[in-house]
Design goal:
Blueprint (H helix, E strand, L loop, with lengths): L7 H8 L4 H14 L5 H11 L1 H11 L7 H5 L1 H15 L3 H4 L2 H4 L2 H7 L6 H17 L3 H7 L2 H8 L8 H16 L2 H7 L1 H17 L3 H14 L5 H8 L5 H14 L5 H18 L21 H26 L8 H30 L7 H27 L6 H16 L5 H11 L11 H14 L3 H10 L1 H14 L9 H15 L1 H4 L5 H15 L5 H15 L4 H6 L5 H16 L6 H17 L4 H8 L2
InterPro entries: Neurochondrin
Pfam families: Neurochondrin (PF05536)
Organism: Lactuca virosa
């Protein structure tokens, strides 16, 4: 008969032999029978061999527990053989999920700390992934045995897009899904940051399913609420190639036809990167260091903006339907929250684009071409118009509370601060409503007013803007906002930006009060006098003192001391602080710097008109 070579039965007989030499010969034969899809053969080989010999062979290959010279000479061969057969065995889930296999995870991690050939590294990673995925405690044992350190040290050396890289990424995905990312970030921040750099390169260079595995891992790690330490580590790096890789990857995803969830993940990643590298990341180099294909510097900006605009249009439409048209009993609260979260990401990207074009417009040079700039502005106008329509819908349904509404007001305020004349008619219609919008957990519209302050300050430079704020009643919300800002003031000039914006807005309104021709409720302003004068007692910079004094002087011009004393929110102590403030500001007359000269003049002119109606203030100023 023709000799057909050793059979599986011959292999099994050798594996059951009494001498190690027989078992080794059987193992060498077993590598031919343990194919990926031959589960029956793998199980028969495993049952014939048993765990004890295999464990001993692995330890011998690692140089543990054997002093025999012949075994030391064959140590590398034993290691290769044991890891190869272990990886083959673990392709059967019943074997991979056994306690015998999970106990070998620390040993295989130790093997990876040595210099190994590429095939042995691949088999180690295959074993680690299969066991970690199959055994209940696999991921925990992998993590507690230093798995993150091994990933961080090995992944930079793995070939891009290789099967070994894929296994390493799957191990990382498994570990982060089974264990708390908070814990991983705290204990292995440096290692996780190194892994992010490797993932960024894969995301940029690959053009297969592994690209989207990298995208998923990157967006999950960098957008996590626990990401701050990793973000800080990346921000501190002198080599920012990782950010270029991420930009290349984001551009590739957004300019191609991909699934909606993949497009959304790319936007989430872009938003996270800008939290680290700033808005100018959008206009950086877009061809990776490994490619020579130049891409226009502003391509990323337009792709991110246009994709965000599409998401906003879809999400606003979905939310409006869920909130106002769908039957309340069938409303899916979780779906609403998810859409609101995704809307927040898209809003953040649009807001970052607004900041970018604002800063670029102030720079010299043509970083963004005129054509692209026009496209961006046109797109922003359309999107802000959509957002205002969403707010009008909420107003019509009597809704003024919700994080989606607050975020909508924020982005409207951000854009109108740069282009106050945009969407003019819609803004006129909705301003009174926008200053009343509250977040889900808030009990006042303070945040909304703060978001709108830059725009409100801008438009009060013109009579029409002042008339709009007065007629819509928005001035009341601005006064309430200023009172709260002053009462919560920490005393540092750097943090007083919102206070100065609110003060400028009120000052502009009061200066144009007669020209506006709209009645404004003095009771709001009277309370402000008491708060501002008390605040001015403690401020150290002259500009804050003079701003408070000029506003108080203009308010005093429309009332009297007798009216103040009857007001429920104005006390005797308030009148005392008003006396101190006016006297202090009047003393600086003629000594003031050029910056405060206009404010001092407002105080002095006002005093000349109303002094006789305020005997206590007049006495304090004139020293009687």
């Amino acid at each position: 008969m023709e000799n057909q070579g050793p059979s599986l039965d011959d292999c099994l007989k050798l594996l059951k032999g009494e001498r190690d030499e027989q078992r080794l010969a059987g193992l060498l034969l077993a590598t031919k029978f343990c194919k990926n899809d031959d589960v029956d053969s793998i199980l028969r080989v495993y049952n014939a061999l048993g765990n004890t010999f295999l464990d001993r062979l692995l330890r011998t290959g690692m140089g543990k527990g054997s002093t025999s010279k012949s075994r030391q000479d064959n140590q590398d061969a034993y290691l290769q053989l044991s890891v190869t057969i272990l990886a083959a065995f673990c392709r059967v889930s019943n074997i991979a999920s056994s306690d015998d296999m999970v106990k070998k995870i620390p040993l295989i991690l130790e093997v990876l700390s040595k210099e190994l050939g590429a095939s042995l590294v691949e088999e180690c990673f295959e074993f680690l992934y299969l066991v970690s995925a199959a055994h209940t405690d696999g991921s925990r044992i992998f993590y507690e045995s230093g798995g993150m350190t091994v990933l961080a040290s090995q992944m930079p050396n793995l070939p891009d897009g290789s099967h070994t890289m894929e296994l390493a990424m799957k191990l990382l995905q498994l570990t982060t899904s089974k264990l708390s990312l908070d814990t991983i970030t705290k204990e292995y921040c440096s290692e996780l940051s190194s892994v992010v750099i490797v993932l960024a390169k894969q995301f940029a260079l690959l053009h297969n399913a592994l690209k989207f595995e990298a995208l998923h891992l990157l967006s999950m790690i960098l957008s996590s609420i626990y990401a701050a330490p990793v973000q800080e580590t990346l921000r501190a790096m002198s080599n920012l190639t990782w950010s270029t890789y991420l930009r290349v990857g984001v551009v590739a995803v957004l300019q191609n036809r991909v699934a909606p969830d993949q497009r959304l993940e790319a936007l989430i990643l872009a938003e996270s990167v800008m939290c680290i590298a700033g808005e100018r990341w959008l206009i950086g180099q877009t061809n990776s260091p490994d490619t020579q294909d130049p891409i226009p510097a502003d391509r990323c900006t337009l792709l991110v903006l246009e994709s965000s605009r599409v998401e906003i249009a879809v999400l606003l439409n979905d939310l409006a339907y869920l909130k106002y048209e769908k039957i309340k009993d069938s409303l899916d609260a979780e779906s609403v929250l998810l859409k609101q979260r995704n809307l927040g990401i898209a809003f953040s990207l649009v807001e970052k684009t607004i900041k970018l074009i604002s800063s670029v417009a102030e720079d010299e040079g043509n970083i963004i071409s005129d054509t692209m700039f026009t496209k961006i502005i046109t797109g922003l106008n359309e999107t802000v118009g959509l957002i205002l329509e969403y707010l009008r819908d909420a107003k019509d349904h009597g809704q003024h509370k919700g994080n989606d509404l607050l975020a909508s007001v924020r982005i409207v305020g951000s854009y109108l601060a740069e282009t106050p004349g945009a969407c003019n008619e819609k803004v006129r219609e909705l301003l009174g409503y926008m200053v009343l919008v509250e977040g889900e957990e808030e009990h006042s519209s303070f945040s909304s007013v703060c978001f709108l302050l830059p725009m409100l300050c801008q438009i009060t430079m013109e009579i029409d803007g002042c008339r709009l704020i007065a007629s819509s009643g928005a001035y009341k919300a601005v006064v309430e906002c200023l009172i709260r800002l002053v009462e919560e003031d920490g005393g540092t000039v750097e943090e007083n930006g919102p206070i100065f914006l609110a003060c400028d807005t009120i000052l502009n309104l009061l200066l144009k009060r007669e020209e506006i021709g709209v009645h404004m409720d003095d009771s709001y302003f009277i309370r402000l006098v008491g708060v501002l004068s008390s605040w001015a007692e403690d401020v150290v910079d002259l500009s804050s003192t003079m701003m408070a004094a000029s506003i108080c002087s203009l308010i005093l011009d429309s009332t009297s001391e007798a009216v103040l004393e009857c007001h429920p929110h104005f006390t005797c102590n308030n009148l005392t602080t008003v006396c101190h403030l006016i006297r202090k500001s009047m003393k600086s007359y003629g000594k003031d710097s050029e910056a405060e000269a206009d404010l001092v003049q407002i105080v002095v002119s006002g005093y000349s008109r109303w002094a006789d109606r305020y005997p206590r203030v007049k006495a304090a100023v004139e020293g009687r």
